Recover the amino acids of this structure.
């Protein structure tokens, strides 16, 4: 475990994570610069650079502009504003701090949310001369939405209002009224000056009427709570570690609760249970691990666990759902429109998801609900969310690590939203399913077959249609009831309105998958022959079926071979640039990772492929 | 060590980040500079995957001007079980005779480090590149994400950074794009030293004070590590008790006078220092915002 070294007293507490919210007018960078400077955290060469920068960019005349210690990017120095979140470490003899310094302007709300999401305490800066601004309330609401439970209202620039007590008290009252409904458990207000340092690291002689702690004293002693402090044991699985057949460990960071050897756990989704065999921290076995520990668990029984599962206390496992009510902050340049598919990441699980409806947007300053058809950049809304596969979760208020998520645009891979789960919607309450007496099993029985969806994926000219056609003929001869959905044919009718952009392709697949599902429900053996280049789309399709019903069939031929075959002359056109977004040439094909059936048409004849398929089907 | 709650929290966070990056990667790699931060990163990654071996190779961009002790240390490390090391040198630069003595430090860095790194990354097709960078090193790094997106030309676009919320890292990449992953983003120089002490992590002995041959140039102490270093008229190496706070190419890395021969002494000296560690890096002084510019060009 290493030798014991003397740790500083400050290291007896875990680092306290702060977010500092305010704009350049509130004196935010000056305040944090002053705290760094007064607690001797600035090196001489850094100070030398800041002195040079002050002469060039500074706003303090001949005086050193301490804000320049923080404003790191060239663009910002030229504009004199702070555009991106900057992280700083501060160490005092009593505590270690990690400070996220975030921009104030509304257009950078997403950066504000980024900083707030990892913070335990928010310092909300107000300029004493300018008073409470719309952004003061906005910052408070965003901080609260992303899990901050402790707020310090720092009324700054008290030097500009002659250190006046009445001004301070009026601002504090106005703030408390405005944010009364936000539900932050602790708000502490204090009068300070970043320029002179009053009440930052030393008591102010100018404000003898204030008898509270300095900002630093308060931060050094504040006891913080986080959403999830009292939650039972949960650990999202990050990584399955299987170096050899003797060892199978599940790696992750404990999100809440504690875990011990012998404890009975359940793997969610699912109902597999096992006692914990060992808890490893690094190379050593430990007696118990708790919240925040990065661990590797081994089990006494062999059970199936993959990344994205949650290991939980067997007595008290988390709920699983695919329908949610959630609050989201929209961060995309294009507005959010209900119905589009995104990638959702919650703890370590990634699934396809869509916003099924926007309930209302939230006026960020007042909390007022507004009717909304879409959400623009930096808007907050309450939405219904559906995922392609079930996700273990907890309401964000109960467990921040299991209730926060991001949405990623699958076209450009940008992070377009961050959200928090409020609760799961009962499927029945959300979409009512008509119950009929004749079930899919009964329908399939009448046809003396098991209904299946055979999903053929592969490049254009890989042989999908040829093999599909031959397979259907064989099944017909055997007296099976089948249907063949072919990409080209469906595009003439059902999907005639769709083009070839990534969004349209996704919608194309979604419609076909839904049609295939209905046909399987009718008891048919459905052969779907679609290029379906994106893994997420195929996974979305799979998610519509019962386990075992959906068979992914990879019709495999290299792009070179397909271009050589080129029966429709499409590759030649694509290579000449006449077809945009052509899979294999100008648009990617994501190979199936674990298809149920993998057929290489470079090695097998179409007839051999069909024999192989029939073997798997029977 | 786990009683030190700051080090424990930093260790847990770093391991979480490393596992997350490897789980999402097709071809992960760890940039290995032989310095103290690389040494810590390597040991953190080994802890993250124990008892499995490190699931990625180390990549060292060798400018051919590293301290000899560094290369010896690197080769000893690479000989350990389960460690695979890739060494890459920009041969075109060597053939063109680019050295720190014949070219400006910025040109030399561009050719032998930045270009060399791009060559090595392209050759390996790496998508997840682990680095030992820390946010306290320098101002532009304080604003960089833990998973920092690079386009297919390896460039950093500071205005197009992905929002990074909670511990939910967006690891989606298009063809040729990559992420630079900095698991020790929230560590400070003092944390690195305390962790090295607590976990008994082997480091290059150049970090410890010893008598070494140096010349003084423009107020900086440069160690004469081999006979490739041209001496100015009247200049003679003298033996002084020095150590290095940061390690790079010997002609571009200044030593500091120090009597710190133990880790405890180094920690004490780090906390009392009035200069930042990058002060000893001659390339950082070239111009305003020099690091940011280098990063936009693909330097790590």
């Amino acid at each position: 475990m290493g030798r014991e070294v003397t740790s500083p007293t400050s290291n007896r507490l875990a680092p306290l994570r702060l977010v500092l919210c305010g704009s350049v007018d509130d004196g935010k960078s000056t305040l944090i610069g002053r705290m760094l400077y007064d607690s001797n955290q600035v090196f001489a060469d850094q100070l030398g650079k800041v002195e040079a920068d002050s002469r060039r960019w500074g706003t303090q005349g001949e005086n050193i502009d301490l804000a320049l210690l923080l404003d790191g990017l060239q663009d910002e120095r030229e504009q004199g504003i702070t555009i991106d979140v900057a992280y700083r470490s501060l160490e005092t003899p009593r505590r270690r701090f990690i400070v996220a310094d975030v921009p104030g302007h509304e257009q950078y709300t997403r950066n504000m949310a980024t900083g707030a999401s990892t913070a335990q305490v928010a310092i909300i800066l107000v300029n004493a001369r300018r008073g409470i601004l719309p952004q003061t309330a906005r910052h408070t609401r965003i901080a609260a939405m992303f899990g901050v439970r402790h707020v310090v209202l720092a009324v700054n620039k008290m030097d500009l209002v002659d250190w006046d007590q009445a001004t301070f008290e009026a601002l504090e009252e106005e703030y408390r009224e405005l944010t009364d409904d936000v539900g932050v458990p602790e708000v502490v207000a204090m009068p300070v000056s970043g320029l002179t340092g009053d009440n930052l690291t030393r008591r102010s002689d100018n404000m003898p009427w204030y008898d509270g702690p300095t900002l630093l004293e308060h931060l050094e002693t504040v006891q913080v709570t986080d959403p999830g402090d009292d939650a039972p044991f949960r650990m999202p699985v990050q990584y399955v570690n299987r170096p050899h057949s003797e060892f199978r460990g599940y790696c992750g960071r404990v999100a809440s609760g504690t875990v011990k050897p012998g404890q009975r756990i359940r793997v969610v989704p699912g109902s597999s249970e096992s006692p914990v065999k060992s808890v490893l921290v690094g190379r050593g076995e430990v007696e118990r691990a708790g919240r925040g520990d990065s661990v590797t668990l081994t089990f006494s029984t062999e059970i199936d666990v993959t990344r994205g599962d949650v290991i939980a206390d067997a007595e008290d496992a988390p709920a699983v759902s695919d329908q949610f009510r959630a609050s989201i902050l929209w961060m995309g340049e294009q507005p959010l429109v209900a119905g589009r598919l995104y990638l959702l990441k919650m703890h370590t699980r990634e699934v396809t998801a869509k916003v099924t409806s926007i309930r209302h947007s939230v006026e960020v300053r007042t909390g007022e609900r507004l009717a909304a058809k879409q959400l623009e950049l930096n808007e907050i809304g309450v939405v219904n969310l559906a995922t392609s596969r079930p996700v273990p979760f907890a309401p964000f208020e109960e467990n921040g690590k299991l209730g926060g998520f991001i949405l990623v645009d699958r076209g450009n891979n940008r992070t377009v939203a961050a959200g928090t789960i409020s609760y799961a919607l009962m499927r029945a309450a959300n979409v009512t399913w008509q119950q009929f007496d004749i079930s899919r099993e009964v329908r399939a029985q009448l046809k003396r077959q098991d209904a299946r969806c055979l999903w053929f994926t592969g490049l254009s000219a890989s042989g999908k249609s040829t093999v599909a056609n031959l397979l259907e003929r064989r099944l017909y001869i055997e007296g099976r009831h089948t249907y063949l959905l072919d990409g080209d044919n469906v595009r003439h009718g059902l999907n005639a309105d769709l083009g070839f952009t990534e969004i349209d392709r996704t919608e194309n697949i979604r419609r076909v998958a839904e049609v295939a599902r209905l046909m399987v429900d009718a008891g048919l053996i459905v052969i779907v022959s679609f290029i379906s280049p994106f893994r997420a789309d195929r996974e979305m399709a799979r998610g519509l079926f019962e386990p075992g019903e959906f068979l992914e069939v990879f019709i495999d031929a290299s792009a070179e071979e397909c271009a050589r075959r080129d029966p429709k002359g499409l590759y030649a056109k694509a290579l000449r640039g006449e077809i945009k977004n052509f899979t294999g040439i100008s648009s990617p094909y994501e190979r199936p990772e674990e298809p149920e059936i993998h057929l290489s048409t470079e090695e097998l004849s179409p007839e051999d492929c069909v024999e192989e398929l029939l073997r798997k089907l029977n | 060590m786990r009683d030190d709650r700051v080090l424990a929290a930093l260790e847990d966070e770093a391991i979480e980040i490393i596992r997350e990056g490897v789980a999402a990667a097709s071809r992960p790699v760890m940039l290995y500079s032989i310095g103290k931060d690389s040494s810590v990163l390597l040991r953190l990654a080994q802890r993250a995957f124990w008892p499995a071996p490190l699931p990625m190779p180390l990549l060292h961009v060798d400018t051919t001007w590293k301290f000899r002790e560094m290369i010896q240390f690197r080769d000893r490390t690479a000989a350990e079980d389960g460690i695979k090391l890739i060494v890459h040198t920009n041969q075109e630069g060597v053939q063109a005779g680019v050295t720190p003595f014949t070219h400006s430090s910025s040109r030399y860095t561009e050719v032998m480090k930045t270009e060399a790194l791009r060559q090595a990354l392209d050759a390996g097709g790496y998508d997840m590149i682990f680095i030992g960078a820390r946010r306290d090193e320098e101002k532009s790094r304080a604003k960089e994400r833990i998973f920092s997106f690079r386009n297919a030309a390896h460039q950093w676009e500071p205005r197009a950074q992905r929002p990074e919320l909670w511990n939910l890292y967006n690891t989606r990449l298009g063809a040729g794009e990559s992420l630079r992953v900095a698991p020790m983003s929230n560590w400070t120089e003092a944390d690195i030293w305390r962790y090295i002490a607590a976990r008994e992590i082997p480091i290059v002995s150049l970090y410890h004070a010893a008598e070494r041959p140096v010349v003084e140039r423009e107020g900086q102490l440069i160690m004469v590590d081999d006979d490739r270093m041209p001496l100015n008229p009247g200049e003679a190496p003298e033996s002084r008790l020095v150590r290095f706070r940061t390690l790079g190419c010997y002609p571009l890395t200044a030593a500091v006078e120090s009597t710190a021969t133990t880790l405890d002494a180094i920690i004490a000296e780090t906390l009392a220092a009035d200069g930042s560690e990058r002060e000893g890096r001659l390339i950082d002084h070239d111009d305003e915002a020099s690091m940011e510019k280098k990063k936009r060009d693909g330097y790590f």
Summary: Chain A touches chain B through 79 residues (CB under 8 Å). DSSP finds 17 helices and 28 strands in chain A. Residues 234-313 of chain A form a domain with the Elongation Factor Tu (Ef-tu); domain 3 fold (CATH 2.40.30.10). The CA atoms of residues 358 and 469 of chain A lie 43 Å apart.
